[in-house]
Amino acid sequence: MKTFTYNVFMFFLLFCVNCIHCQAPKASKNQIKYIDSLSEIAKKDLIGNGDALKHIIKLSQKANYPKGEVRGLVNLGVYYTNNSMIDSANFVYDKSEKIIQHHPDLDFALSYIYNNKAVILTNQELHYQALKYYHKSHKINLKQGDKKMAMITKMNILNCHLALGEPDKVIAYSNELMKDSSVVKQDDLKYQIYSSLAMAHYDKKEYGKAINWWSANLENIKDSDRHGEISYLMTNIADAHRSMGNYNIALEKALNAKNIIENKPQFSAYAASNAIILGKIYNSLDNPKQAILHFENATIKNPDDPMDLAFSYKNLGAIYERIETWDLSSRYYEKYGSLVDSLYHTRNEDISKISEGKIQLLEEEYKNELLTKDNDILSYKNEKQKLYIISLLVGFFSLLFILLSFILYKKYNKSERQVELLKEKEKKILETHLQSREEEFLATMISVNERLEKLTYIKRNLSSAIKYNNRDEIIAAEKKLENFISSTSDLTILKDRIESQYPGITAQINTRFPELSSNDVRHCLLMKLNLSIKESAQLLSVSTHAVKMARKRLKKKMNIPEDMTLKDHLQNTMY
Fold first, then answer.
1. For the packed helices 50-62 and 66-82, what is the interaxial angle rounded to 10 degrees?
2. What is the CA radius of gyration of the chain?
3. DSSP secondary structure letter of residue 564
4. d(CA 311, CA 298)
5. Angle, CA 14 vertex, CA 10 and CA 17 arms, to 5°
6. Average pLDDT in the 154-177 region?
7. Residues in CB range of 136: below 8 A, 6 or more apart
8. Which one of 105, 150, 457, 557 is least enclosed by Cβ atoms within 10 Å?
9. Cα dihedral value 296, 301, 305, 310, nearest 10
């Protein structure tokens, strides 16, 4: 009896939903044509057409045109990315994915969504995370037979491995691409592959092979007007010869590269790279005068590149120290130290902007709620057209509802205990999940601490090399430092972990105590995570005394009573 009643109820429920769905407004051909034309116009400017894209999304929702809505959301994500609104971009991409889950015929758009997400992560130097989305995009490209997009995605995968310092994978992917005849026919794509192969072999210290690939690219463009690229290739070849100990050949090629872009301000970035290589070569030739001249020239040619400046300042300090010009050596070491401190300060400012990004995300969610309400109003108007169907079914469903309520009431009394058991099980699952998140967070902290220990080790090696004027050790320490700087994105991950563990905690602290500095906020977060003074000191690379004094000043700034500890105050007031 119960089974029969349930089946009858589900049959009529599905019948009713189907009738109502049939009455839902469908996008007409004219509406689709109009929305698509607006999308084409807005797509031409994905930097300033944010309002137009939002209007297209709203029109698509009213017209029940999911393809237009997804297209608008993807373009809006690109608009947000172009305007550095990364959180908003990820929000609309996630919303697009949810729509596609209900409309499998639109899964072709997932390729663009995953690719755009990967680009955002690549720009944030989160290459491992980017690889996950690039591989998803590549799988969809192959499924749809989009060879061109598949090749582009594979090139992006290759570049991620290059940035991660994985030359063997770069070589493997490059060789795989080179087997495709369509790739070889595309000069630009072949040029990129050759460049990637050269950099991979250079990283593996296979300088002869690197020279061969750079020379192949040079041969292809030597008669073109791409003077900057020509000079850059010749400079790279010169650097490879320098690494092999062929200093005279390296000097000749570097000087030829310099002559190509001499007195051409538009190639200042290439000129700076060339000046750095010339400085290295003259330094290897034990010609400090010329080495100083070119390192100083590098700082003038490209003053906006902090990595070129840091490298030049450090080498100038070392050279002046070697020739015992102590005042200039000290000055350049101070510039180098100030620049490194500035880079860390800028990174900390970027971390603080995450809170602002979350506020923008909330604003976007509010605007989307308004769009949803508008859609609800439209649905309400459409409901009036369905009254004649509903009136025929009200009586029947009323009877079924009474019967079903009686059956469910009897069943509820029997299963009440089962519900309680399920709740207890869910609670245990949640506690286990929280514990795993905490363990994952602590693992991230350990990773950051290891990075700091590595930096201390490099500093100790560099100090020893400078003290004993060991040029080989200086070069080795320089390489380690460069590798370390290129891989330091863990503080951003640590910040994400803190926000994941305590959502909105940074915004809470800044709102309640606006007078706190960024360093004060950092100490609050570490105390909120129950880190001891010793653990905080290790994480921040400072003494335990410095942490104690910072917490004492923080307590005074927050006007906390003497009989209450700073930790208790944070635990009681921050959630």
1. 160
2. 31
3. S
4. 10
5. 140
6. 87
7. 110, 114
8. 105
9. 0
What's the whole-number average pLDDT of the chain? Answer: 78
Tokens standing for residue 87: 């959180």
Q: What are the Cα distances from residue 555, in Å, to 100, 559, 562, 566?
A: 51, 6, 9, 6
Closest CA to 153 of 171, 170, 167, 133: 133
pLDDT in tens, 69-86: 888 888 888 888 888 888
**Alpha helix segments (H runs only) across 262-386:** 268-284, 288-301, 306-322, 326-383
On whether the CB atoms of residues 222 and 188 are closer than 8 A, the answer is: no
Q: Are 157 and 134 in contact (CB under 8 A)?
A: yes
Instruction: State the greatest distance between any 2 C-alpha atoms of the chain, in Å, as a whole number.
Output: 101
pTM of the shown model? 0.52
Question: What tokens were used for 514?
Answer: 């606006």
Angle value at C-alpha 558, between 555 and 564, nearest 5 degrees? 55
Please report, for residues 89, 156, 321, 498, 561, the alpha-carbon distance to residue 530 in angstroms, rounded to integers and kept in the order given.
33, 41, 45, 12, 20
Go through the domains of the chain in sequence order and give each one's CATH number.
502-573 (1.10.10)
First to last CA, the chain: 52
Residues in the chain: 575
Task: Categorize the per-residue pLDDT at 237 as very low, low, confident or very high, splitting at 50, 70 and 90.
Answer: very high
pLDDT of residue 23: 43
Q: For residues 82 and 311, what is the distance between their CA atoms, to the nearest angstrom? A: 30
Token pair of 238 as six digits: 């010169």
Task: Kindly state the helix (H) or strand (E) to which residue 24 belongs, with its residue range.
Answer: none
- Token pair listed for 254: 């570097």
Crossing angle between the packed helical segments 147-163 and 127-144, to the nearest 10 degrees: 160
**Which residue carries 């050790």 as its tokens?**
473
Picking from 71, 78, 70, 72, the residue whose alpha carbon sits closest to that of residue 48 is 78
- Of the given ranges (128-132, 187-191, 282-286), which has the lowest mean pLDDT? 187-191
Q: State pLDDT tens for residues 280-321.
A: 999 899 999 998 888 888 888 777 778 778 888 888 888 888
Tokens describing residue 74 = 């993807």
Confidence of residue 448 (pLDDT cuts 50, 70, 90): low
Answer yes or no: is pLDDT of 241 > 90: yes
Distance CA 463, CA 454 (A): 14
CB 178 within 8 A of CB 154: no
8 A C-beta contact, residue 150 and residue 142:
yes
Angle at 210 between CA 209 and CA 216, to 5 degrees: 90
> At residue 450, does pLDDT exceed 80?
no
Q: Which residues contact 170 (CB under 8 A, 6 or more apart)?
A: 158, 161, 162, 196, 197, 199, 200
Residue with structure tokens 């598949």?
Answer: 150
Please classify residue 224 by burial: count the beta carbons closer than 10 Å to its beta carbon, then call 0-12 exposed, 13-18 middle and 19+ buried: exposed
pLDDT of 11 above 70: no
pLDDT in the model for residue 335? 84
Helix 227-244 × helix 187-203 angle, to 10°: 20
Any idea what the Cα angle at residue 201 is, between residues 313 and 207, rounded to 5°? 70
Alpha carbon distance 429, 510 (integer Å): 33
* 297 within 8 A of 282, measured Cβ to Cβ: no
